[in-house]
Amino acid sequence: MALTRLYKDGVLELKDFPVQDISDHLEDPASVVWLDLCRPSSEDFAMIQEEFGLHELALEDARHPHQRPKLDHYRTHQFISAYATAIDPDTAELTTSEIAVFVTERAVITIRTDDGFAMEEVLARWDDSPDLAEHGVGFLVHGLLDYVVDGHFDAVQRLDGYIEALEDLLFDEGRHEIRTVQRRCYELRKSLVRLRRVVLPMREVVNALMRPGMHVVDEPLTPYYQDVYDHVLRVTEWTESLREMVTTVLETNLTVQGNSMNLIMKKVTSWAAIIAVPTAVTGFYGQNVPYPGFSQQWGFVTSTAAIVILSLLLYVSFKLKDWI
C-alpha cells in the first residue's frame, strides 16, 4: 500500500491520493510530493523510475537490503540509506529497519523493507511543524532524519541503562551471577557493535546534506539540521564510551572471578592446615615404637590437648588474617 502527501505553497493539500496523480501534481511548480512504498514490487520500482527519472544504481541499492547508511549524489536527485533502531526490553537485542530515500527537487520517495519503520511517527513530526513545510523537500527529509536519529539516541540510552544494571551484578555472590554477567556482556557488546554500524556513517550523511551544493537544506532549515547533527555526534560518542564500558565490565568480571578463586583457595588451604595438625599428632602417636606416655592415660590426654590447642591457635590466627 502506497502512502502519499501533497504540499502546495507550504500547506498540506492532499493525503493518500492515487499514485497515478503524482505527475499531474508535479506540473505545478509550487507542489511538493511525498510517496512511500512498503515492500515494493518490481512494477513499483519501474513506476518510480519512469515517474521521477531515478538513476538505475540508486534503484539497485534500494532493491537490495542491508546497505550501509550513506548519501549518494546523482545529477537529478540524492539517495539516502538509513536505519531505524529498536531495543528488545527482555534481551537487549538491537533490531534495525532499513529505509531508502530518494530526494528530488520537489519530491521525496521513501522505500521501506518492512513494517518495522514507524512511518506514523514521521508523519506526526511533519504535522507538528507545519510552519516549516514551506521549505519543501528539506522539511520532509528533516522530519525523517530527526525520527531516525532520535531512535538511535533512545537505543543508546536504553543500552546505557542495561550496562548500569549489569554493573550492579558484578560483586554479587554466586556463580550463577558470574555467568549472567558474562552472558549479558556479550549480548550488549553485540548490540553496541550493530548500533555503531548504523550510527557512525550518519555523521557524514547529515553533514553532506547541509552542504550548499546539495540544494536540500536552505538557510532557515540549517539550525534544525545542525541540531540533528549534534544528536548524531552525541550518539556516536555515547556508543563508543559504552563499548569501552562493556569491555571494562567484562575485564572486571574476570578479575572478580580470579579474586573469588583466590579466596576459595585461601580458605581451603587454611582448613587443610588445621586438619593437618590432628593428622600429624595422631600419626606420630600411632607409630609402633615406645614414646612418652605410651599405654598411659596421660599420654592420650596430652595428645588430645595438643590437637585441640594447636587447631584452635591456627583457627584464631587464620580468622584474624581473614583467611577463613
Keywords, separated by commas or semicolons:
324 residues, alpha+beta, Beta Polymerase, domain 2, seven-stranded mixed β-sheet
What does this structure look like?
A seven-stranded mixed sheet has the order 2-1-3-7-6-5-4, sandwiched between helices. The chain is α+β, with helices and mostly antiparallel strands and 324 residues long. The mean pLDDT is 88. The chain has helices spanning 22-26, 42-52, 56-63, 119-128, 137-168, 175-199, 202-209, 222-285, 297-320, and strands at residues 2-8, 11-15, 31-38, 70-73, 78-87, 94-103, 107-112. It folds into two domains: 2-257, CorA soluble domain-like (Beta Polymerase, domain 2, 2-Layer Sandwich); 263-320. The longest helix is centred in the C-terminal third of the chain and has 64 residues, at 222-285. Helix content is 58%, strand content 15%. It is found in: Cell membrane.
Question: In short, what is this structure?
Answer:
This protein is α+β, with helices and mostly antiparallel strands. It has helices spanning 22-26, 42-52, 56-63, 119-128, 137-168, 175-199, 202-209, 222-285, 297-320, and strands spanning 2-8, 11-15, 31-38, 70-73, 78-87, 94-103, 107-112.
State the helical fraction: 55-70%
> What is the strand content?
15-25%
Shape, per Cα inertia axes: rod-shaped
State the separation between the terminal residues, measured CA to CA: 71 Å
Would you count the extended β strands for me? 7
What is the CATH homology-level superfamily of the largest domain?
CorA soluble domain-like
How large is the radius of gyration?
35 Å
